[in-house]
Specification:
Elements (H helix, E strand, L loop, with lengths): L61 H14 L17 H4 L4
Protein name: xyloglucan:xyloglucosyl transferase
GO cellular component, one term: apoplast
EC number: 2.4.1.207
Length: 100
Amino acid sequence: MRMYCSLWNADDWAKQGGRVKTDWTKAPFVAYYRNFNINACATGGACDSQSGNSWQTQELDANGRNRMRWVQQRHMVYNYCADFQRFPQGASNECKRSRF
């Protein structure tokens, strides 16, 4: 398993619709991961509660969904699932799935 990170200039759409610009004087930008630990299943593999992966089938309850909506309404700056100008061909597969 591998994990990758990338940085791209999305000033024109991702940063409050272009209102906030990247401060390129702070470059070079560096990202690193420390104490990263993942528990995952191979594609097509069985993940169940007996293998310690019961978290994969957990869902938010009504209170959790309400709290999530509250955070999104007050703190989410950009949602590409709702950006129909940038993606007129329609939403991607993950956007079509239930949000909660």
